[in-house]
Write a structure and sequence with these properties.
Elements (H helix, E strand, L loop, with lengths): L5 E8 L2 E10 L4 H12 L5 E12 L1 H16 L3 E5 L3 H10 L6 E3 L6
Parallel strand pairs: 2-3, 3-4, 4-5
Antiparallel strand pairs: 1-2
Length: 111
Amino acid sequence: MDRAELSITVHRTGDEVVLRLAGEIDMLTAAQLSTVVNEVLADPPPRIVLDLAGVTFCDSQGLGTLVVLSRKASHSQCLLILSNVGDFLLRVLDITGLRSALMIRNENTST
């Protein structure tokens, strides 16, 4: 069985920090994502954008992590925004009812 991998690149621009994610957000990689976001929240910017264009899979652990990180950011007076969310993940968020709990900004869609 292949080990799931997640690469995260951090770009600071003005009022926001963009984290570009590529790979899978699951029980093996969710802690890695939490660690990076928590490091950014040590000196919170107004916005953290998680660019999910490269995410190929997200399990329940990954979904839970996104919600927890969104709440943590909110407590730090920071917005956590998901961008470039793929259709598969939007469907999962709709099915689970989590779409309303997360801020989603997709530039490539008309929603």
